[in-house]
Design a protein that fits this description.
Blueprint lengths: L44 E10 L2 E8 L4 E8 L1 H6 L1 H15 L9 E6 L5 E6 L4 E2 H8 L5 H9 L2 H16 L2 E2 L8 E3 L5 E3 L6 E2 L37 H4 L8 H17 L8 H9 L16 H10 L11 H12 L11 H11 L1 H20 L4 H67 L3 H5 L2 H10 L5 E6 L3 E6 L15 H9 L3 E2 L3 E2 L5 E11 L2 E10 L1 H6 L11 E7 L4 E4 L19 H12 L3 E7 L8 E13 L2 E10 L1
Antiparallel strand pairs: 1-2, 2-3, 3-5, 4-5, 6-8, 7-10, 8-9, 11-12, 11-16, 13-15, 14-15, 15-16, 17-18, 17-21, 19-20, 20-21
Helix pairs in contact: 5-7, 5-10, 7-9, 9-10, 11-13, 12-13, 13-15
């Protein structure tokens, strides 16, 4: 065997071992005999040592006789391959997923085959190095907390490498689902490798259904172990939606959450949630926010804390949309650029300006000193020197005034941008909170309907919803595929028996089996409406759904707090396709920000609309001048996104004249 510092490190540390609960792997009653470690594996590979064993398989150090290179051979133990079909299938799936991800940060798979016993194996590149978990533990051995933080932050480049590897996987439709320090290897020559794609989810492919079997005789409650069975992932690094489907489905933002947990570890020296696995799963499933990485006792970079807090938002819509965006934010911090997740103060922006322009400011000072020195040496030319001094002072005063004007303008723009962003986030959170409360109330009502007969007798249930959520215009119960069988309030009783099966939102709710939000549409009663639909589930069938209509203008205007509005400020709430649901100026409601032809006359507004469409949140600027205006109109904009259902995103845009 190779010494530990020279062997392929694929077996993680004890606190990162794979957790099995309920245990899908066979319980090995007797130790498995190891193969001869100096013999032949097959005709193409010989064996030179062993790396690790666990979870029904083992990793061997091999030598490719055809090419002449050392390789790592991962194989299933014969008993595991023969006794557990799911284990066998998951092993082959891991090999195929890893093999299709061709990226420097992901181990390439060279070969895939089957031994004479029928057990599968695959051959991959030999990765030398230690895990990120081991590196982080080594950082924490520092006696001073400041020194430990400094050493951990030196690993930020490695985390950026991980984000880029995961971003590549996301571009191929692959979600890792088990990112943690124990699955990241740091090579001696700057390599950063993401391992263990056994729990990966592939878009548009059916996931493997976990098999529930008897628990092992000695279960572990270590929160940093991977669970395979009822829950997939490692509790300490698991996104809320992996622990509780009420938070939504698993997607790229689930990996962003795990990367946020690793960033939290870099900042604090431990994962964000600690305790037993069951304790952590309970905390993840609650509505309580994740703990902030901020620690007033440590000199943590506030930009990194803001990035970490955004990545760890329990509401998926508030996180970075994918690993690409997270990597860009981390690179911006590393390179000294502005980070969009952090609201800078005027002082911070001024200090950054001075730091970036040290050479220019120093040169200006040198020129001024040279002028003064020249004036002193030219004492014999008193009149000329006096005039030169006066000119220099006058020019210096002009420069000083111009600099002060720039600083005031910068401070003013920064203040307005930060205030607008705060207001946009406040409005978005208020709207999202109200929609989520309504959706949860509708879900509870849907759960109370136990049979098809209950649907037509749900008038009292709908009336209770009306009492609980007075901002809603109406509620209805619909029998699949689209017949309305109950409504509230009674003034809409003419809708009873109507067929709504062709409405896009009803068809989508039936097809996906999840709550959906409609686009704005013209209701039969003549007003603009938006509908939320919650399916009623009975086993694997959907006999119908509960729907709620709102009048967007009335609903949204009632949720705008007084402190978010002013005479100079305009607030837009925009549908994901660009349609303006609400505008402080009612004449603009119903126009399309992304496609309105007259907006093309303002190139800056067209560019701003493009940024709003592409980014979940941000700050922008545009200026326009109408024929009737003497001065151009300058607007500073900030926006935030909210997603109350999987299918729909609204944007809150706050603009202020400057």
């Amino acid at each position: 065997m190779l010494p530990e510092d020279d062997a392929t490190i694929i077996k993680p540390q004890d606190h990162d071992l794979t957790r099995v609960k309920p245990r899908p792997y066979p319980q090995l009653l007797e130790p498995v005999a190891s193969p001869a470690l100096d013999g032949k594996f097959n005709d193409d590979y010989s064996l030179r040592g062993a790396v690790g064993v666990g979870g029904g398989g083992q990793v061997l150090l091999g030598f490719d006789e055809r090419i002449g290179r050392e390789v790592a051979i991962k194989e299933l133990l014969d008993q595991g391959a023969n006794d557990d079909i799911e284990l066998n299938t998951r092993f082959l799936r891991e090999a195929r997923i890893t093999g299709r991800l061709e990226h420097p940060g992901i181990v390439p798979v060279y070969d895939l085959g089957t031994k004479q016993s029928g057990a599968p194996y695959y051959v991959m590149r030999l990765v030398r190095g230690d895990t990120l978990a081991k590196a982080l533990k080594a950082c924490n051995t520092e006696l001073l907390a400041e020194h430990a933080l400094s050493r951990r932050l030196s690993l930020l480049d490695r985390l950026i490498d991980v984000c880029e590897a995961v971003a590549y996987a996301h571009s191929k439709g692959v979600i890792h689902r088990d990112l943690k320090p124990g699955n990241i290897v740091l090579g001696p020559f700057g390599e950063t490798i993401v391992l263990d794609w056994g729990l990966a989810k592939v878009e548009n492919e059916a996931d493997l259904a976990p098999t529930t079997v008897a628990k092992p005789s000695q279960p572990s409650d270590d929160a940093e172990l991977t669970r395979i069975g009822d829950i997939l992932g490692t509790p300490a690094y698991m996104a809320p939606e992996q622990a509780n489907p009420d938070f939504g489905s698993v997607d790229t933002r689930s990996d962003v959450f795990a990367l946020g947990c690793i960033l939290y570890y870099l900042l604090t020296g431990h994962p964000p949630l600690r305790g037993s696995a069951d304790d952590i799963l309970e905390q993840l499933s609650s509505l309580a926010p994740m703990p902030s990485a901020r620690d007033p006792k440590l000199p943590m970079p506030p930009e990194l804390v803001a990035i970490c807090d955004k990545a760890l938002a329990k509401d998926k819509s508030l996180r970075f949309p994918n690993a690409v965006t997270l990597a860009e934010e981390l690179r911006a911090f590393r390179d000294g650029r502005l980070v969009s997740a952090y609201a800078y103060s005027r002082g911070e922006l001024l200090r950054r300006f001075i730091a970036r322009n040290k050479v220019v400011l120093a040169a200006s000072l040198a020129v001024l000193l040279a002028i003064l020195l020249g004036a002193g040496l030219a004492f014999n030319f008193g009149v000329e020197a006096h005039k030169a001094r006066q000119l220099a002072v006058a020019e210096g005063e002009v420069v000083k005034q111009e600099k002060q004007q720039v600083e005031r303008a910068l401070a003013d723009v920064t203040r307005i941008a930060n205030e607008n962003l705060t207001a946009a986030n406040q409005v978005a959170a208020n709207i999202l909170g109200n929609l989520n409360q309504m959706r949860m109330g509708m879900q509870q009502a849907a759960d109370a309907l136990r049979s098809v007969k209950d649907l037509s007798k749900s008038d009292v249930l709908l009336e209770n919803l009306r009492q609980d959520y007075p901002r809603a215009e109406s509620f209805a119960t619909t029998r699949a595929p689209g017949t309305i069988v109950a409504v509230a309030p009674a003034k809409y009783s003419q809708a009873m028996g109507a067929d709504t099966s062709q409405l896009e939102h009803n068809r989508l709710a039936l097809a996906r089996g999840v709550p959906v939000l409609s686009r704005i549409y013209q209701a039969p009663e003549g007003f603009a409406a938006v509908t939320m639909v919650v399916p009623i589930k009975q086993g694997n069938s959907i006999p119908g759904f509960i729907s709620m209509r709102i009048k967007p203008v009335d609903f949204l205007s009632g949720l705008l707090a007084a402190d978010t509005q002013s005479k100079k400020r305009t607030i837009w709430i925009v549908q994901d396709d660009g349609l303006i649901l609400y505008d402080t100026d009612p004449r603009e409601i119903g126009l399309n920000l992304f496609r309105e032809e007259r907006f093309n006359q303002i190139p800056e507004l067209r560019q701003l609309a493009k940024e709003i469409a592409e980014q979940d949140s941000g700050v922008g600027f545009y200026q326009s001048q109408l024929a009737a205006q003497d001065q151009p109109s300058r607007q500073i904009a900030a926006w935030a996104s909210l997603r109350s259902t999987e299918n729909r995103v609204w944007k809150v845009v706050v603009l202020e004249a400057w």
